[in-house]
Amino acid sequence: MIIDEKNLEYRFGDSGPKYLMKGPRSNFALVRFNPKEDFPAHYHEYMEENFYVLEGKIDIYIDDEKFTLSKGQFIHIEPTCVHYVNNPYDEPITMISTLAPYHEIDKIEVQNYKPTT
């Protein structure tokens, strides 16, 4: 299978995830957040998630602990860990996201999440 990402769209027009593959065993996405954008806090019951930063800088909160990642850094998030992604910086961020094992519906949003750190 060969996918050209130029033929796909980001979820929110010019930002958010752009899935190059969804299933049957994993998801693979290119993710972009513009300056001052974030992605709601959520967790996965079954899937683990990984992010690898291609360009920019991003804050990722995992179970309320803040991690700041930049180009070339990788982070692994275990199932059931609440995670919130925020780009408070002045530059866009581009990263790769993988989720496995594939479950078609495995995203539980956390309402009224406010990081404490």
From TrEMBL:
Organism: Vagococcus zengguangii
InterPro entries associated with the record: Cupin_2 (IPR013096), Flavonoid_dioxygenase-like (IPR052538), RmlC-like_jellyroll (IPR014710), RmlC_Cupin_sf (IPR011051)
Protein name (Swiss-Prot/TrEMBL): Cupin domain-containing protein
PANTHER family membership: LIGAND BINDING DOMAIN PROTEIN, PUTATIVE (AFU_ORTHOLOGUE AFUA_6G14370)-RELATED (PTHR43346), QUERCETIN 2,3-DIOXYGENASE-RELATED (PTHR43346:SF1)
Any Pfam family: Cupin_2
